[in-house]
């Protein structure tokens, strides 16, 4: 911080003002932000300004000086000539002792204000009341959801965060007695109620944003634990999307609509395979959405087996999936044919600076029986990826094969059964490349041979970058199929938001009910996040909640203490004047600029 002097000429008269300023980093580079105005009072000799600024900074942050060389003793505020006209009076008629004016109890308020306003707009208080919760539970649930949205922390640390924020001012509640036990009990009350809450919230959002539910995007992710989690039957080791196979985890399934709004979520055991969750998730959707005529469920190829596709159709939905790689062979001649391809360009999102343009070649096709629409797709970026994956696996496969051959030659592996078992494990570990090699074991010579199938490998290489999309609709164009399928990336973006700004992982709870409630609170916070980001996208502004909450952190609520000569103190509790960036955010979100009306109180000055 430093002190900056400004001058302004009005009607021939020069007015001087001294500002306490700090330098902040913004997206447009370093900028000066005014902390407070010192008025026309000259803060002593200019050489002492920096020391005074440091002292004011320590005072505003509550830091005490270790030395007794306070600038207050060394630098006296010099009153200019205008003060000689007489002491300035407050509009109440009391003389203000300007040397004793202080600012205290500064609380971050901008992000809390936005979160509270969006909570009210979604009608979550009424939704929770409809689920049977009383006033205290509704307030605690709002606190826990806003914490996930703004500054995620454990329940143990959450009460301290509440007291550092402006929640007491905004909610007009006293949280001095708030502790982790009350928050844990509130989680227990919420357990088992996410179904009716999600159903009511989905209906509210559908009305507010005119959402269509003709497309339902379904995908899964995993969330890992710290600890053994002996009290949670769903905590299992399985395929970890977080690269933490050493930790137990649960699998979270999430359904979004085409606009990215959550429709339902479900928590499965950590060792549950993706393909076995489809039927359960369809049952959850029916309970919370009802039957959706002509809605299309989109899933990735990990869930695209025939059994799941039949289950989706039986539930009354259409499906759109990426076919498994071996199915491309049936369309090999159509991939080879150069005619009929259409180039589609997908522009990168302005929010993803590293993203490149996506150029895809599409060709329509039909299934052999004509009951499905099929899109043949070819992507240059995917070609490079497929080749890189194959080359990496091929190097590892050949190295492990050579190790196995040396074990056989050295006599460390003698029985034929053990050798064939080791060969089977290699093929299982490297399925992408093992199919292009012919492995054989000569029992008489005790030799292992591995020969490349050139014809089969060349055929596979010619299909690098290609993939197959298919739908139970029989009237969709190739472009419609492709554009609908890439909407599935919105679920991946939702998982990134849940895990990064909302800090869903790692989970420190051990009880199953609290684990599920923790994830539910993260999903509630994501509802607020997607509403906020949607408001900006509707106005053509590409930004993220992570950026917005950082910009809002400088809007605060403070108490100004104005002592008078009569040993009385006027305290004013109010929000600071919003800066330009705050005003713009509030304008886009259609929330009030001012956080609370000033609260004035007179008290006796206690020395």
Shape: elongated
CATH class assignment of the largest domain: Alpha Beta
The end-to-end span amounts to: 30 Å
Name the poorly predicted regions: 62-87
CATH superfamily of the largest domain: Transposase Inhibitor Protein From Tn5, Chain A, domain 1
Arrangement of strands in the largest sheet? 7-6-5-8-9-15-12-11-10
**Major sheet characteristics:** 9 strands, mixed
Number of domains: 4
Structural class: alpha+beta
In CATH, the topology of the largest domain is named Transposase Inhibitor Protein From Tn5, Chain A, domain 1
Strand content: 15-25%
Helix count?
A: 21
Radius of gyration: 32 Å
Question: What is the averaged pLDDT score?
Answer: 86
* Quantity of strands, as a count: 18
The CATH architecture of the largest domain comes to: Alpha-Beta Complex
Helix content: 25-40%
Describe the structure.
This protein is of the alpha+beta class and 607 residues long. The chain folds into four domains: 1-86, no CATH class; 110-190, no CATH class; 194-372 and 472-538, Alpha-Beta Complex (Transposase Inhibitor Protein From Tn5, Chain A, domain 1); 382-461. Helices cover 39% and strands 23% of the residues. The protein has helices spanning 49-60, 71-74, 110-121, 124-130, 135-150, 155-164, 167-171, 180-190, 194-209, 278-289, 306-314, 332-336, 380-409, 416-429, 431-434, 454-461, 478-485, 489-499, 512-538, 545-552, 580-589, and strands at residues 2-10, 13-26, 29-39, 102-108, 215-224, 249-257, 262-269, 296-299, 318-322, 342-346, 358-366, 373-379, 437-442, 447-452, 466-471, 556-563, 568-575, 599-604. The strands form four sheets. The chain has a nine-stranded mixed sheet, with helices on both faces. β2 and β3 (29-39) form a beta hairpin. Residues 62-87 have low confidence and may be disordered.
């Amino acid at each position: 911080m430093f002190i900056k002097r400004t001058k302004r000429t009005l009607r021939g008269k020069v007015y001087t003002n001294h500002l306490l300023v700090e330098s902040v980093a913004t997206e447009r580079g370093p900028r000066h932000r005014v902390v407070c105005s010192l008025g026309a009072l000259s803060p002593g000799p200019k050489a002492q300004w920096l020391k005074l600024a440091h002292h004011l900074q320590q005072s505003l942050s509550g830091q005490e000086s270790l030395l007794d060389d306070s600038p207050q003793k060394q630098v006296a505020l010099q009153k200019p000539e205008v003060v000689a006209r007489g002491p300035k009076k407050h509009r109440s008629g009391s003389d203000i002792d300007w040397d004793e004016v202080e600012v205290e109890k500064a609380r971050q308020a901008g992000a809390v204000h936005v979160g509270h306003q969006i909570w009210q707009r979604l009608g979550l208080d009424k939704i929770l009341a409809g689920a049977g919760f009383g006033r205290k539970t509704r307030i605690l649930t709002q606190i826990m959801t806003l914490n996930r949205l703004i500054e995620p922390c454990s329940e143990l640390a959450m009460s301290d965060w509440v007291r550092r924020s402006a929640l007491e001012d905004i909610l007009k509640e006293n949280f001095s007695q708030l502790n982790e036990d009350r928050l844990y009990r509130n989680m227990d009350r919420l357990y088992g109620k996410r179904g009716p809450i999600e159903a009511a919230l989905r209906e509210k959002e559908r009305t507010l944003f005119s959402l269509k539910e003709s497309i339902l995007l379904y995908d899964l992710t995993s969330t890992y634990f710290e600890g053994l989690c002996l009290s949670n039957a769903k905590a299992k080791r399985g395929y970890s999307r977080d690269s933490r196979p050493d930790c137990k985890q649960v699998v979270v399934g999430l359904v979004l609509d085409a606009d990215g709004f959550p429709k339902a979520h479900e928590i499965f055991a950590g060792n549950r395979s993706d393909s076995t969750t489809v039927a359960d998730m369809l049952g959850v959707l029916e309970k919370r959405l009802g039957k959706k005529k002509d809605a299309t469920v989109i899933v990735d190829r990990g869930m695209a087996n025939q059994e799941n596709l039949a289950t989706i159709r039986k539930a009354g939905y259409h499906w759109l999936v990426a076919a498994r790689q071996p199915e491309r062979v049936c369309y090999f001649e159509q991939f080879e044919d150069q005619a009929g391809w259409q180039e589609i360009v997908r522009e990168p999102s302005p929010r993803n600076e590293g993203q490149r343009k996506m150029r895809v070649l599409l060709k329509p096709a039909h299934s052999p029986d004509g009951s499905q629409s099929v899109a043949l797709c070819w992507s240059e970026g995917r070609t490079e990826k497929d080749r890189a994956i194959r080359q990496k696996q091929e190097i590892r496969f050949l190295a492990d094969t050579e190790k196995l051959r040396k074990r056989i030659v050295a006599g460390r592996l003698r029985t034929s059964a053990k050798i064939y078992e080791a060969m089977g494990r290699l093929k299982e570990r490297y399925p992408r490349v093992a199919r292009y090699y012919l492995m054989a074991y000569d029992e008489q010579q005790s030799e292992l041979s591995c020969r490349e199938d050139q014809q089969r490998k060349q055929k596979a290489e010619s299909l690098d970058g290609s993939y197959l999309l298919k739908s139970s609709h029989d009237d969709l164009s190739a472009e419609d199929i492709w554009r609908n399928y890439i909407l599935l990336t919105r679920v991946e973006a939702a998982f990134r938001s849940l895990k990064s700004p909302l800090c869903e992982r790692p989970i420190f709870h051990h009880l199953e009910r609290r684990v599920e409630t923790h994830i539910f609170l993260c999903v509630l916070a994501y509802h607020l996040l997607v509403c906020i980001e949607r408001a900006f996208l509707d106005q053509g502004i590409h930004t993220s909640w992570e950026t917005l909450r950082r910009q809002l952190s400088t809007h605060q609520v403070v108490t100004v203490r104005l002592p008078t000569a009569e040993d009385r103190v006027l305290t004013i509790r109010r929000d600071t004047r919003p800066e330009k960036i705050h005003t713009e955010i509030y304008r886009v979100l259609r929330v009030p600029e001012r956080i609370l009306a000033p609260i004035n109180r007179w008290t006796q000055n206690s020395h």
